[in-house]
Amino acid sequence: MSFWFWHGLRSGIRTTHYPRRAEAALGVSPGCPVNTEFSSDGEAQTAAAICPVDAIVAHGKSAFVDQGKCVHCQRCRLSIPSPMNWDTGYEWSRLPAGQAESMTLPSAFSRSMHVMVVDAGDCGACLHEVKQLNNPLYNIHRLGFFFTATPRTADLLLVVGPVSENMRGPLLKTWEAMPATRRVMAVGSCAISGGVFGHSFICAGGVGSVLPVDFEVPGNPPPPLAILHGLLVATGRKSVVDTERVSERRS
Amino acid sequence: MTACSSPADGNEQIGQSDLTAALGERFRNEVSPIQAERGYVLTLSLIQTSSLPSLCRFLFWDLGCQFGGMIAEELSDHWCLHYTFLLPGSGWIDVLLSLPIGTTTVPSIVAEVNAVDWHEREVEDLFGIHFEGHPRLGDFILHDQIWREGIEPMRKSFPVSCELKRKLDLEWQPLLIVGDPGSFAMPVGPVYDGGLGESVHFLLETVGEDVIRAVPRLFYNYRAVEKLAEGRSVADVLLLAERFAATSAFAHSLAFCQAVEKIHTVEAPPRAAILRVLICELERLRHHAGAIAAICESTAFGVSTAHASIIEEELLRASCVLIGHRYLFGLNIPGGLSRDFESGEYQRLLLSVDKAEKDLSTLESRLRYSSSFLDRLEDVGVIGIDSARYLNLVGPIGRASAQHCDLRKACPYSGYEGYAFDVPCEKEGDGYARLRVLFAEATQSVRLIHQAIDALQPGAVRVPCGGSPGGAALGWAEAPRGAALHWLSLDEKGLVDRYHAITPSFSNWHGFHEAAEDFAFQDFPIILATFGLSATECDR
Fold first, then answer.
1. What kind of fold does domain B225-531 have according to CATH?
2. ipTM for the assembly
3. Which of A136, B181, B205, B356 is most exposed, with minimal Cβ within 10 Å?
């Protein structure tokens, strides 16, 4: 069995340098469409019309994206002649609509935050990306973030999925079992807006209708680095993104 | 490692005409065979309800068919129950039972074909049809402590966006089976493992050391995908088909797209068919790397977990570089693919895939010499060959118990008949056999990816798909976890009338208890990991 130790050492350190430096490896993020200024009103309207979840709204020549609704179907990128601009980054975390101030955890948590995850009707993608944070390539322990097995020691409740009726109870129980100074983070478009599942007799249409949400990480699913950015925002080590910015369409 | 010969290669194959003749002899006055298309080779319309059990027993046990699943459909004046069987090498057989809409009771066939168990429970819960003779109905998808009786959400009259008055019955207790003195039940879930496990609840009953009864309670993630689909366009439902189980999104969207293509009688162009095989195998490779990582993790073997999860993450990144999405969303569309690739793009993919294969084979050879790891897997969570057949297990789990059915061979789609590959099988049916099957299948997937890239010819990747006056069809694909069937019915406007997805996790969760029972508590997480099932894929 000793060969494992030797092979482990030989692999060297593979962990990303984020957040100290941006991660340059290809494929760490699928990217997302961003607010785009087109050369005509018609192009903006075409982009808005192709979106199956009404995440894109045309306003004059500009098309605005609500990242909380976008399901990364890529139709506004692949299926129209003038595609939307695509951001290849991963720093997407934002505050819920209507919330002006970030509910950052006190400084005592900045290098020791325990995260409780609840799968509330997730399709498996967001949960899988959360799990990837334990992968040596991301290794969130080095940043002082830990997944905890019990809500009693948790500081942050990370919820994935649109909140299915059968999970509403377990989700609330988990939240109630957490000690004070707790925060809630909705990860993925389903947890933010219901995503493709929306609001129905069986789906709450997002965590916000069940619990007070403090942070949102849009994406379908958000890649591990986007979730990591969310954790850094929750501890005040990174700031949220500017969702109002519009970029001129690159041809 | 042995590669099982599938019946399609040997002389066991039963031709369609032989089948009709064999059925004609025994069921002359009881069924009217109709030559069917749109996914089925034969539809057997039952004249009397009473002959349903004997016909199903004949198909499953005498002819050796696999049970695909059961599809219930509510039409304006009658019910249609489709019992779908697969005759390997020939195709899908649809046993059709039509009943007037007022019917509330149907004979259960669970005594004949055990695999129908959960299908009947699902239909009872969602449509309100009672299956006479079924040992355990109720409290399945709609959990009894939350939902009032009499709610039948899949009925056409039930509105999808209604507000239900919730009840929360705090006094509700699960049904315990073991009544021995000193026995107790240990509940696990739905939030367990720090929430990193998918939402599923297990009731483990024990008198001390060994798990005597393991009852999984699923459907915490039930989002009524099939109900949401009704009345919506194919393009909208494609998003749902892709997103209800993201870790096998491509296989499910492929099965769905094939159903749509069959309804509109179009075929994806050859280049798209080859690329679909390529991406399907990429997904399988990535899924199996992840499943191997989960098995290593369940034994708390950190270094091997790290190695396997790095392989998985690298494949996720390679998928993202090629497709633009780590979970392969947005590529499949009815009629082909949404985009084409340039030769440089899939050559780069090939480098990642070859590296993954090399890393996996290194990992396998190291694990094979790690006795303390093997001790946790060998002779643990055993499912015998007969039990696997009785429970109709599918996918890698079935193949670890010598159930060689693989839809890529048994009922080829997307041109799989043109590729050379083996279906790895084992006979032991324990955790280690399941791990070996995963490694061997990953190697076969790489082999298929190479062949697909060699076979690529220039051409279109999509054809227009639409315009037919509706109809119903079955699409299928061998998802990473096993057989996935998507049954779709479109109305004359092209909107979805009924959509039903039968997933491998649904089929295999039904047999999970067989593996977990009579093993010690500390083996439970390992057995769970070697099954590698997805709750959300089962729940829909």
1. Cytochrome-c3 Hydrogenase; chain B (1.10.645)
2. 0.91
3. B181
